[in-house]
Design brief:
The complex is a heterodimer of chains A (360) and B (261).
Chain A (H helix, E strand, L loop, with lengths): L8 E10 L2 E11 L4 E5 L6 H9 L6 E6 L2 E2 L10 E4 L11 H11 L4 H14 L15 H13 L5 E5 L7 H18 L2 E6 L2 H7 L2 E6 L2 E6 L1 H6 L4 H6 L4 E10 L2 E6 L2 E5 L6 E7 L5 E2 L8 E12 L3 E8 L3 E8 L12 E6 L4 E4 L5
Parallel strand pairs in A: 3-8, 3-9, 6-7, 7-8
Antiparallel strand pairs in A: 1-2, 1-4, 4-5, 9-10, 11-12, 11-14, 12-13, 14-20, 15-19, 16-17, 16-19, 17-18
Chain B lengths: L7 H25 L16 H8 L1 H35 L2 H10 L1 H4 L2 H15 L5 H25 L3 H9 L4 H29 L3 H6 L7 H11 L4 H28 L1
Helix pairs in contact in B: 1-12, 3-4, 3-7, 3-9, 7-9, 8-9, 9-12, 11-12
The chains are: A alpha+beta (360), B mainly alpha (261).
The structure holds adenosine-5'-diphosphate and magnesium ion.
Adenosine-5'-diphosphate binds next to strand 2 and helix 1 of chain A.
Chain lengths: 360, 261
């Protein structure tokens, strides 16, 4: 690959309507040069539609797409010079692996010698040099996926767009290819835009995640930022798991205090006085030993538990906060859980984050 | 207890139908091998004399040549127009294109005699009567439905993402057509070509109306021969006609089988 840097993409107020149905509403997004951005959302949330508007296959009802500041909204897909890995790969079944990868070069009328050299180099890059003369039907799912990647990268595209590139693979292979994809992104230094509904994939691959719900971009940010400080109930629940505590908020110096029944929960973030919501990750709650203290302490009884090998998943029924889910590494649990057993739960203030309710 | 299997009746009906369909062929084959000089079953021995005569008499070889030429040319016409129409309808794929596709099937639906009468009147005005071009146009146009059907079927199985993929990689419409769409639907085109060829190869009614002296296809020659004399060479030529058709159908079958693997 040449030393050309990646390109920056910017979406400004993109909307797509099908009749009266709004598939995407007012999506604005900046993707920096060389970044790996993932559009994450449940099925039907508009991920593919956004990607297809970036690629030029779907015409936006409103808004603009800019590449390095240049408006490309009206440029047809064949002139955008973006690499694309389609859902299901869309390899040409009547061509060999090498012919598939050579296709974008053939379209650009590159000389035979240079074409062969680039195809070979790209097949090396995805470790498929052994399979150049096979047909796609003679390859495994993981190998097909790599052919699709090679074909999308061979012509040095300005952007690489990936629509659920790993979703057709089994779990183990998916984890493997996830690592490969990440390494590939480092090596080629291009801007990647990936679409997935798999939150683990999004967390492990991306520099940035844009979370979509029902056609709207809910929150954009680095994976750890989204995980630690989700903005809404949807984000907290979709990206990992979460307990939610509803109550009356009061402001205090360290963040907010949420009152529910006789219990006061200390949390971080902003919420106007009145009804508010806290998100509390199960792995941030601990079971306290005798005499141990925490910024937040709540008593309850174990309602259910299960052993997960690496730890325990415990559901604790509390008087004021309802049922709380707790994930504990096996080495950190001071007792052997049993149903009905009284426990004291504790968590630091920073574990409880104020989140907004999602707009209906 | 000797009860009949389900489907007993339908099995018999099927066999009777097959027999009925095969009967004319089972008669013309022995007749074509007769050792006599008139249309009859062989008396004493089987003979290939009528086949030999067929291939050495200029009147017959001429007709065979003309038929082959007309069938080839009209196949070309049907394949080009039929494929273009099927691809056009598929790409636009609106309600109006459904109508176009249905219209394209008219030549199959309309009785060929009605079609022939209509053609006769038009061709008279255009000066196409009794001309090679006239017959090629007529057979080509009536061959279009076969191509539209087989190519549309092939296109229905074509994954539209392949077209998007090609465009996304920078391919123009022409390049996408040449390198992606056509190779994928080639089996359908070949099937359509085979049927269009067969259609022209054994077509008689239209030829009877629009050709007289100069254009003499094989079926027409047989027709005239039957009316004028009872030459066993006609049985031989009929076997040839059937043989060619069967050969082409087997070719189509073989190609399909090969693709299925
Ligand atoms: N061509 C179309 N016509 C009508 N509705 C569509 C069309 N394409 C997508 N949609 C709808 O838009 C919504 C978003 O679709 P999509 O972007 O494919 O979701 P995702 O990729 O997140 O699963 C879905 O409800 C889908 O049914
Ligand atoms: Mg999708």
């Amino acid at each position: 690959m040449s030393g050309r840097a990646g390109h920056a993409l910017s979406l400004q107020g993109l909307s797509k309507r099908y009749g009266s149905f709004v598939a995407v509403q007012d999506a604005s997004l900046e993707v920096g040069s060389g970044r790996f951005l993932t559009l994450l959302g449940p099925s039907g949330s508009g991920k593919t539609t956004i990607l297809m508007m970036i690629a030029g296959f779907v015409e936006p009802s409103e808004g603009r797409v800019l590449l390095d500041g240049r408006d490309i909204t009206a440029v047809p897909p064949e002139r955008r010079e973006f690499g694309m890995v389609f859902q299901g790969y869309a390899l040409f079944p009547h061509m060999t692996v090498a012919e598939n990868v050579a296709f974008p070069l053939r379209v650009r009328r590159l000389g035979r010698a240079e074409r062969d050299a680039r195809v070979r180099a790209t097949l090396d890059l995805v470790q498929l040099d052994q399979f150049a003369d096979r047909r796609p039907s003679q390859l495994s799912g993981g190998q097909q996926q790599r052919v699709a990647l090679a074909r999308a990268l061979v012509f040095d595209p300005a952007l690489l767009l990936l629509d659920e590139p790993l979703s057709a693979l089994d779990k183990k292979l998916r984890a493997e290819l996830q690592d490969e994809l990440k390494a590939l992104h480092r090596r080629v230094g291009r801007t990647f835009i990936n679409v997935t509904h798999d939150q683990e994939e999004a967390l492990s691959l991306s520099d940035e995640i844009a979370i979509l719900n029902a056609g709207r971009l809910v929150q954009v940010g680095a994976p750890s930022a989204l995980y630690e400080r989700p903005a809404t109930r949807f984000v907290a629940g979709f990206l990992g798991r979460s307990n939610f505590v509803e109550g009356e908020a009061e402001r205090d110096a360290g963040g907010i205090v949420l009152r529910r029944g006789g219990t006061r929960v200390l949390g971080v973030g902003e919420a106007p006085p009145g009804p508010a919501l806290l998100s509390l990750r199960p792995e941030k709650i601990t079971v306290l030993a005798e005499g141990e203290g925490e910024e937040n302490v709540v008593e309850g009884r174990i309602a259910a538990w299960s052993y997960l090998g690496a730890g325990y998943a415990i559901t604790v029924a509390t008087a004021d906060l309802g049922e709380l889910k707790v994930h504990l590494p096996a080495w950190r649990i001071p007792l052997v859980p049993a149903e009905g057993m009284p426990v004291r739960l504790g968590w630091p203030r920073g574990a409880a984050v104020a989140v907004a309710e999602d707009p209906a | 207890m000797g009860g009949h299997r389900p489907g007993w009746l339908s099995a018999w009906v099927s066999w009777a139908t097959v027999l009925y369909l095969l009967l004319p062929i089972t008669i013309i084959l022995p007749v074509s091998l007769t050792d006599q000089r008139f249309l009859s079953l062989p008396y004493e021995a089987l003979s290939l004399q009528h086949y030999a005569r067929l291939l050495t008499t200029p009147a017959w070889t001429d007709a065979i040549g003309q038929s082959a030429l007309i069938a080839s040319a009209s196949t070309l016409v049907a394949v080009v127009l039929g494929t273009a129409c099927a691809i056009g309808c598929w790409r636009l794929s609106r309600r109006s294109t459904e109508l176009v596709r249905a219209l394209m099937l008219l030549p199959i639906i309309i009785p060929s005699i009605a079609y022939a009468v209509g053609l006769y009147r038009y061709f008279a005005r255009l000066g196409l009567l009794d001309s090679f071009t006239g017959v090629v146009v007529a057979h080509g146009v009536t061959g279009i439905p076969y191509v539209v059907i087989t190519v549309s079927t092939a296109l229905a199985a074509f994954d539209p993402r392949l077209e998007s993929a090609a465009r996304g990689m920078g391919a123009t419409l022409a390049q996408t057509l040449r390198w992606v769409i056509l190779p994928r639907i080639m089996p359908g085109i070949v099937s359509g070509a085979i049927f269009a060829f067969i259609h022209s190869w054994d077509e008689l009614v239209v030829v009877l109306f629009i050709a007289s002296r100069r254009v003499f296809t094989l079926p027409r020659k047989i027709w005239d021969g039957i009316n004028e004399n009872l030459d066993p060479a006609m049985a031989a030529v009929a076997v040839l006609l059937v043989g060619m058709t069967v050969l082409l159908l087997l070719l189509d079958l073989a190609l399909r089988r090969q693709r299925a693997d």
